Amino acid sequence: MPKVILAASISESFQQFLISKNYELDMKYNNPDSIAQAEGIITSTKLIINKDFINQAKNLTWIARLGSGLEIIDTEYAASKNIFCCSSPAGIANAVAEHVIALIINLQKNIVKSARQVQQYLWIREENRGVELEGKTIGIIGFGHIGIKVAEKLSVFGCNIIAYDKYKIIQHPFVKNVSLQELYLHSDIVSFHVPLTAETNNYYNADLFAKPHVVINTSRGKVAYTEAIIKGFQSNQIIAAGLDVLDFENEYPFSVQNIAQLASLKNYNCIITPHIAGYSFNAIQKMCAELQKKLELCIFNE
Ligand code: NAD
């Protein structure tokens, strides 16, 4: 019986679909025998599918990634071996976009900060006055699946939405396509939605912005390094930061140096969540349905 390696939790209906295709589901994603026998792999971030891995997986014909990016897969090498690769960016986009809105509103309205104070029996109103989103300019960097969803959700708040994407001209009814320089000039809030590449590594530098701003990063930690965020706060260029990803999150449990960086961010209006933006119950279902459709079309020709 051909095998599918499950290196991610998938929905019951997706499991049933794979079983109906006569696959045996194998959870032993670190086992060389399982890898050698696998015809398909479903993974989130647990496996780095590089050349060595692909060479071990001699029977592999497809790789399905539960999540948006394919950066953990050597897709070029996979293509050279006729291995079909797909991901599920549409299924996860709404979850991330909602998280972005939650971070922005929480920061603008001091919700997390003031709620923490009340837990310590403090009732502080003046320093927790909010700032409204209406009239603010939001700069979106990277206008793909998530960037578009963020813009759509923001459209009801009466703010100006501008966006820059290096690889496309943005044509959207309520989003203004701008250059990166224009985005740096006008943004009150900036939100990153780019993949991590050599070009986007260390993208964020608070000094490039014309005015103090709020920075949101739900893309990858190395797009906006913690050091760059701390520097931005120290120079008063950052008013607030909402981060769902950290450059050192894969090194958990954190080193003394990482803890020192997190401790220094406690002094500022900064909300950090543990890479959960796309991690909703609904997103898993939607991503599984998206992957199933792609496999039906490209592997089973249905
Ligand atoms: P996508 O591929 O649909 O969109 C990315 C966009 O960025 C593309 O339009 C691309 O042209 C643009 N881009 C690439 N390089 C650029 C550059 N140098 N400058 C400006 N724009 C550039 O991806 P997506 O589904 O919107 O996801 C974006 C990123 O969000 C993912 O790569 C992933 O790293 C991250 N993500 C995070 C979570 C989470 O839970 N926090 C979940 C899903 C995705």
Defining traits:
binds nicotinamide-adenine-dinucleotide, 36% helix, 302 residues, Rossmann fold, five-stranded parallel β-sheet, 2 domains, single chain, 11 helices, alpha/beta
Task: Write structural notes for this entry.
By secondary structure, this protein is of the alpha/beta class. It folds into 2 domains: 3-90 and 281-298, NAD(P)-binding Rossmann-like Domain (Rossmann fold), CATH 3.40.50; 132-268, 3-Layer(aba) Sandwich (Rossmann fold), CATH 3.40.50. It has helices spanning 12-20, 32-37, 51-56, 75-80, 89-108, 111-119, 145-154, 180-186, 226-234, 256-265, 281-298, and strands at residues 3-7, 24-26, 38-43, 62-65, 84-87, 137-141, 160-164, 176-177, 189-192, 213-217, 238-243, 270-272. Strands 8-7-6-9-10-11-12 form a 7-stranded parallel beta sheet, with helices on both faces. A 5-stranded parallel beta sheet has the order 2-1-3-4-5. Helix 9 (226-234) links the parallel strand 10 and strand 11. Helix 5 packs across helix 7 and helix 5 (89-108) packs antiparallel against helix 11. The mean pLDDT is 97. Nicotinamide-adenine-dinucleotide is lined by residues 67-69, 89, 92-93, 96, 141-147, 164-168, 193-197, 199-200, 218-220, 244-245, 275, 277-279.
